[in-house]
Amino acid sequence: MKVHIDEVNCSGHGRCAKYAPNVFRLNDEDGYNADRGQTIEVPAGEEANAKLGVKSCPERAITIVED
Hints:
Elements: E1 2-5, H1 15-19, E2 39-41, H2 47-56, E3 62-65
Antiparallel strand pairs: 1-2, 1-3
C-alpha cells in the first residue's frame, strides 16, 4: 500500500501522524508532513493506521495510491 501527501493541501494539522506515527513523519520546524509532495510506501502491518491517518486529514491532503 502507498499513500501520496499533497504538497499544497497539507496544512500541518499533524493528525495523520497522531493516528499513524509509524507511517507519517512531521517536520520539527513547522509541523507539516515531512513527505509532502511524495508518494510513500506504508510499512507492512501499518495499513489500518495509515487509513485512519488518511481519514483524519481535514484538508484531504493524503490519498491512497492504488497499485
